[in-house]
Structures are given as structure tokens and as C-alpha cells.
Write a structure and sequence with these properties.
The chain is α/β, with parallel strands linked by helices. The chain contains nine helices and 13 strands. The chain has one domain: Rossmann fold, CATH 3.40.50.
Length: 306
Amino acid sequence: MGGGGFLGVHLANALTRHGAAVRAFGRTLANPNELDERVRWSCGHFEDPAAVAEAAQGQEIVFHLLSGSVPGQPGQKPVSDLETNVLGTLRFLDICDAAAVRRIVFASSGGTVYGATDRHPIPEASPTDPISAYGVGKLAIEKYLGLYHHLYGLEYFALRVANVYGPLQSPFKRQGVVAAMLDRALAGKPLEIWGTGEIVRDFVHIDDVVSAFLLAATYNGPHRVMNVGSGAGLSINQVASDIEAVAGTTDIPRVYRAGRAADVPVNVLDISLITRETPWQPRFSWHDGLRSTARWMATRRIARLV
């Protein structure tokens, strides 16, 4: 579910390369030329039970990547978020149970479920006090996954993912500060920053996130929730400076806008659990990952101009 998005396309392609028979389901396919031709693509809405049931039929493992909102979305609408994400997922879990799906791997949010905390990096056992409807919804879905496991034996695994970046990420959505800034820097446009730029975030490359999802599909240990991040933090101002450097410009203006209520001051994830329990390690350093993303985006911009 959510197979047409940034993470979905990367994950579907990786599963195919590993020999899996993959079916991807989503509203739209953002990068149709990037999806492996061996992946079976199904277009449909999460709110359409018949379409979801048809996509889930015969699947052993389902990756739930869908979300109808983003963390920093202005004018949060908790009721809409609840109806689309949480209630939609409950209907989806009923469908998976009826279709005899064995395991669900869920893309949760390490950036929002914890809320503001004084402990950094943040381990999975930390209190969860999200300050956005997005984070509340992600946490509620984790709890319902636990309930369905208890009631019906449906296996699940939730990965609390940090701020993902890398090739194929759209610069035009309200999620993905790296893609948005890179796109503007390469075009010579001012970089937009919410707040003072001193908030700190954990950035993890898409390839590292995908490898964590592949491991989650077969992990049989005692844990049901794990963080996925780099384990290190960067201020948004530092991100902007690094982006200027890889874009080859150092004089791009920065536009500072009012801070957002959903932004916690610091969010860096403790990744010791997943690195201890599985072979997973983040392979991409920040600068290597940023350079590879910049090369992809520069090539994409040239292709649009031709």
C-alpha cells in the first residue's frame, strides 16, 4: 500500500531484485519510468475497500506505507487525519486478516511519535507524546497493529523512520526538506526555512531505509517496533549550508518563515536496537548521500529542460 510514492517505488524495486513477486498499490505512480517492469502496478484509492481487498488477495507480506497527510501540514485537521489514516487502516487490517496476510510491515514516524523530549538520541522505550495529528495517527496505528496481533495473530512490524531523503523524492510536497532545498538551490532560488533553522533532525538515505524494510519482512525476534535513522542530528541551517556546497553556490539567500507548531526542537533517533537485533547499519554518510541525491536531481532538472 502506498507503492507509487518515494519509498514505495524504491522498496518495490528492491523486493523485485531479491526475487519476490511484487504487487504495488496506490493512488498515483509518481515516477512511472522508475518502477521495475516486473512489478505489478494497481491504481486505486485506500478508501475503496474492493480495490484494497483485490490488491491484498494472495499476498503473504504487506508493506503499509500510505498516509493522507504530512507532519508539517498547516491547518491540521485531526478528524480528517483520523478518518483517512486510522480508520482507513482499521478497514485495511480487517481486509488483510480476511485475506490471510501473514505479516504487515508499517512505516511509522520516528520524527513525530515521540514529540518533544529531553533525551537524545531517542530510544524506542521513550514516552510517546506527539504534537501533530500525523504523529498521533501513526502511534494509533501501531497500537491497533498490536491489538490485531493479540486478537487474530496477525504478525506486524513497525519501523519508526527518521527524515528520509534521496533520489526520486519530490521537491514539491510539504515533506522532504532536502529535496525542496536542493531543487531551489540548483535553480538559484532562495532557500525557505521554517523558524530559526536551529531545529535539529535525523536524516537517513532512502537506500538505508529500504534495507531496513527488507529485514523487517523476515525478522523473527521479540521486538515489534524499531527506530530507523542515522543516529546523528543536523540543524536545518547546517543542511542548507551543505546543500549550497554540493550545488556549487554559497550566496543563495535564505528566507526564514514563522515556525510551525508541529516542529519539535530536536529529533535524533537511537538506532542501537535495530543494529543490535539485525544486520542493519546505515551505509550512507550524510555527505555521500547528499552528493548522490544532488547528482540525481541535477540530471532530472536537465532532462526537464531538454
